[in-house]
């Protein structure tokens, strides 16, 4: 699809940007927004439309093209964010869009993004030597605190349910505590824990200090690797912790950090190049 063709269907972009921006910024479609939010949305969308129009009418836009495969992939990726195809279709309709117009809008958006990639191809690449210098001058940024791979079982306290009243909940947890071991902890968490983590065998992931309830945090960081805690109480209820593995505090070495340092600085340099190009476009308009 040529630039001229996409611009002739430019009107498809506005409702798409309204839908996308409203969902990203407010978590709901434009028609559900309050008056002040609608005004904010209008401002943001108009700014985006202006930038897209400038990019798509630039001479650089004639140097790139978008394939139908790219558009199809973009539609699939967008649809995957919704619970079902039906939800996707309903949201499109609520925003005065259909699959044809969303295809046109995504083509425009992809074309703009590709132009920005094109004009920033020659951004200054961050070298390994520069990365090493950055690492040496910012060692504190690469310090990793002690972390513990942790799981838990929770029985909540809730007087509305007889089995969750304080005494009953504690007895249930006592029964679990008598039966569990490190090898069976995940199985018991799946069957008995009343925390959403039960779906993942009670796993809390890698835990740093001061992330959990104070009562849990204080005990967890006294535990040995592979240990189980006694029954602990927080405002949420009764818990048993399993400290599966301890990762001591350390400094990430340069070889591990190098690629991310280079990637981060290259992203900044690329964005700067794109911003300079856009500024020139807008300046020429005046």
UniProtKB/TrEMBL annotation:
Q: Which domain of life is it from?
A: Bacteria
Q: Which GO terms describe its molecular function?
A: peptidyl-prolyl cis-trans isomerase activity
The answer to whether UniProt assigns keyword Cell membrane to this entry is no
* Residues annotated as domain PpiC: 145-245
EC numbers listed for it are: 5.2.1.8
Known catalysed reaction(s)?
[protein]-peptidylproline (omega=180) = [protein]-peptidylproline (omega=0)
The answer, when asked if S-adenosyl-L-methionine is one of the entry's keywords, is no
Q: InterPro entries, from UniProt?
A: Nitrogen_fix_NifM, PPIase_dom_sf, PPIase_PpiC, PrsA_foldase, Trigger_fact/SurA_dom_sf
State the family it belongs to.
Belongs to the PpiC/parvulin rotamase family.
For this entry, the protein name equals peptidylprolyl isomerase
Q: Which organism is it from?
A: Reinekea marinisedimentorum
Q: What is the lineage of its organism?
A: Bacteria, Pseudomonadati, Pseudomonadota, Gammaproteobacteria, Oceanospirillales
């Amino acid at each position: 699809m040529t630039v001229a063709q996409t611009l002739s269907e430019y009107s498809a972009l506005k409702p798409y940007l309204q839908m996308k921006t409203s969902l990203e910024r407010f978590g709901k479609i434009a028609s559900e927004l309050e008056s002040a939010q609608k005004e904010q949305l209008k401002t943001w969308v108009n700014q985006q439309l202006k930038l897209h129009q400038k990019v798509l009418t630039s001479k650089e836009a004639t140097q790139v093209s978008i394939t139908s495969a790219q558009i199809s992939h973009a539609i699939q990726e967008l649809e995957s964010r919704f619970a079902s195809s039906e939800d996707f279709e309903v949201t499109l309709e609520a925003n005065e869009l259909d699959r044809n117009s969303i295809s046109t809008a995504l083509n425009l958006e992809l074309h703009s993004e590709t132009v920005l990639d094109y004009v920033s191809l020659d951004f200054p690449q961050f070298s390994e030597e520069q990365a090493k210098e950055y690492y040496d001058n910012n060692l504190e940024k690469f310090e990793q605190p002690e972390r513990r791979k942790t799981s838990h079982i929770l029985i909540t306290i809730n007087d509305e349910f007889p089995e969750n009243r304080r005494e009953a909940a504690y007895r249930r947890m006592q029964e679990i505590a008598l039966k569990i071991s490190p090898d069976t902890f995940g199985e018991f968490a799946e069957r008995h824990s009343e925390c959403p983590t039960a779906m993942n065998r009670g796993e809390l992931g890698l835990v740093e200090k001061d992330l959990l309830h104070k009562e849990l945090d204080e005990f967890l960081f006294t535990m040995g690797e592979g240990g189980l805690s006694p029954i602990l109480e927080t405002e949420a209820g009764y818990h048993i912790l399993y400290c599966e593995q301890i990762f001591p505090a350390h400094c990430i070495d340069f070889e591990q950090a190098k690629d991310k340092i280079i990637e981060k600085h290259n992203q900044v340099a690329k964005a700067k190049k794109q911003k300079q190009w856009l500024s020139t476009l807008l300046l020429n308009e005046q």
